[in-house]
Amino acid sequence: MGFGVRIPFVDHLGFELRLFDGGFSELGYAPKPEHLNSFEVTHGGALMTLLDVTMAVAARSVQKDMGVVTIEMKTSFMQAARGPLTGKGRLMHRTATMAFVEATAFDEAGRACAHSTGTFKYVRRLPIGPKGANALNVISTD
Description:
With about 140 residues, the chain is of the alpha+beta class.
């Protein structure tokens, strides 16, 4: 199962797509040593990326030909994230142009480590560009 587009940063982190359907998503993530912080737990930035991508996938799961861009995201960290992680996302509400989504990252024992809510804007994808990258019809600083 694939994300439908190539996302180099997601490839670098090694996320595994497990569910991408009907407003729900699930991603697996086995953090590498370079993804840890000085306490030897998953860095908050890597954890937020897992949650961001998990929410984006849930938003796209109801219309896979569209892209999404993050408009805003709030994250609460509940406990240190150790070992393999699972991100589970859910599309809570959708309009013609916006998606309101939530996601939780769980550790191997099923304990919630972090939770996010986010707002995403649906954008049409343009044809593949000269470098093989999928372009969006928006300007992004991501």
